[in-house]
Amino acid sequence: MGGCFSDVRGGQAAVGGGGGHNNNRLPTNSNSNSNPDEAVDYFYRSKGLQPLYTRIELSLSGSKLYDRDILSKSDPMAVVYAKKKNGALEELGRTEVIMNNLNPMWIQKISVAFQFEIVQPLVFQVYDVDTKYHNMSTKMLDLKAQDFVGEATCALSEIMTLRSRSKTLQLHGRNGHHTGTLGSINVHAEETIASKMAVEMRLRCTNLDNKDRFSKSDPFLRVSRIVEAGGPIPICKTEVVNNNLNPVWKPLCITMQQYGSKDNPLVIECFDFNSDGNHVLIGKMQTSIEGLEKLYQAKAGANFVYPSSRHHSEKVLKGSLFVDGYVEKELYSFLDYISSGFELNFMVAVDFTASNGDPRRSDSLHYIDPSGRLNSYQQAIMEVGEVIQVYDYDKRFPAWGFGGRMFDGSVSHCFNLNGQAGNFEVEGVHGIMTAYQSALHTVSLHGPTLFGQIINQAAEIAGQSLSTNSNKYFVLLIITDGEITDIQETKDALVRASDLPLSILIVGVGNADFKKMEILDADNGKRLESSTGRVATRDIVQFVPVRDVHNGEISMVQSLLEELPGQFLTYMRSRDIKPLNVNVHNVPYPPDPLMT
C-alpha cells in the first residue's frame, strides 16, 4: 500500500490534521479558516467589489500514473491552474508529494471560487518530484526542475454539474499532445462548509501487530471520509511513530470542513511506514467523529480489523485505538477578528544603501523621474500601501530608513523617514511617499544592509502594546534591493520577535540575488534558530520579490496576504485570544490535562 505524504522528514510528518504545526496545535492551512483568499476578498469588498461565487474544495487522486523513475516509483505531486481568456495559467495550488506511488490519494485540498455564470477552464498537471527536493515546502519547488508526468483539462462546471461531483480525466502530454498511457487523475469537488467547528483529539494504539522482521513497526494513522459517491477521501494523517507497537500521536485537529458531520462515516487505517512507499496495512476500522467521542467518554478502545480476502473472512485484531483527549473547538477566522475590531498596524522601512545607485542617475532604483513615473520603491510603497491601509484604522504609519549616512556624517540603520527626531509616524500612504522623497535630499546612500535594528524597533512597539491593547497586531514592511549582511543578528531578532504580535513582509526590488531572504522566510519547513540555539515559536516572515509580481506570476494583493492570515491566527490561537464580543464556545467535557 502506497500513501507516503512527503511534505517534510521523508514522508513521516503529519498532513492535514494540525499535528505538524507548532505548540498551538491548531491547523493553519486551508482547512482551518485561515484561507488567504478571504483576506483578498475583504480587500476587494473594501473597494466596492462584490464577487459572486461559491468556494469549492477539490480533492485529487491519481491512478496508474506513468513511472518516471528507473529504480523506484514516481513521487507525484499535482498542481492545479485556472486558464485565463488569454491562455495564461494562474496557479491555484499544489498538493503534497507522495513518495513511491503510482496511485496517489493526496490529502491537501485545492480551493477555487466557482462562478456559475462563466466558464472556468482548469488545468491539472502531475509532476514526479526529485528526491533531493523532498524536504522542501512544495510552494518553493521549481517545477522546471521536476519531471513532468502529464496534464488534463476540464471546466469546473463539468465537475459541479455531475451528481457525484467527481470526474476522472485521462492525462496527456503538454498542450493536448498524446504520448501514450500516462494514467488518470480523479477530481472530486465539494462546497466549503461555513462552520468554524473543529475537533481536537489525542489518539493512541495498543498491541498493534508487528509487521517488521528485525524491529517493531513504525505506525501512522490515515483518516478518510466516505462521501456519498461511495469512495473514501483522505482528510488527514498522523506523523509516524518509529519502532513502537503502542504509539501515542500528537493531537490531531480535524475541522468540520474535513469530517462533514459528526455521524459521517470515517475510515481509520493504521499502516507500518516504509521509506520505499510500500506501507503495510496493520488494521482498519469504520467509525465517525461521534463514535470517537463515545470512545473518549467510555475510556474504552476499539479493535482494528484486517479486511477479508478471497480465502479468509474479516479478522478482528488485538490492536486497539483509544481516544485519550477530545475537545470541540471553534476556530475563528481572520475576518472574525478583523470585523470584531482587531486592527493591523503597519510599519514601513526603506533601504538607503549605496547598492541602489546614485538617486541622481536614471538607472538608480531611487531615481525620482520628473515625468512622474514611479521608481521601484515608489511602486512598492503605492502597491503595498493600497493593500495595507485597508486594515489600519488610523492610517498613521511608523516609517523608517536604514543604511543611510546622516547630515552629521554618521551612518544610521534605523532613522525616522520624516526627519523628525521625536516622531516616526506619517499620515497615510501619501505621507510615506512625501517622507521618502524628502529623505533622498537629506540622507546619503551608504550601507551595509542591516535589518537587526529595524526589526528590534518594530518588536519594541509590538511588545509595548501587550500591556495596553491586545487587539492590535503589527506588520513591518521592509523594502530592500539586496542581500543583508547581518544574517545571524537578523535571525536572533526574528526569533525574539516570534513571541510578539508581529509579522514581517520583505519586498525585494531590483534584480539582486535574494537567496538569504528566502532563508528568513522559512518556507522550507525549518524554523529559524538563534545564535543561542533557541528556535522561533512560529514563522513571521514573508518575502515577495517585486519582479515576480511585475512578471505577472502573482498579484501584489495575493502575494502579501498569502501567509499573513495564517501567521495572525497562529499567534491568536496560541494565546487563546478570541475575537471581541463573541461568546466563548462551550466545551462539552472538562478540559483534558493532556490537551492543555
TrEMBL record:
The protein's name is Calcium-dependent phospholipid-binding Copine family protein
Localization annotation: Cell membrane
Q: Which SMART domains match?
A: C2, VWA
Outline the segment boundaries, as ranges, of region: Disordered.
14-37
The GO terms describing molecular function are: calcium-dependent phospholipid binding; metal ion binding
Classification via CDD domains: C2A_Copine, C2B_Copine, vWA_copine_like
Task: Give the GO terms filed under biological process for this record.
Answer: cellular response to calcium ion; defense response
The UniProt regions of compositional bias labelled Low complexity, in chain numbering, are 22-35
Q: Locate the VWFA domain: which residues?
A: 345-564
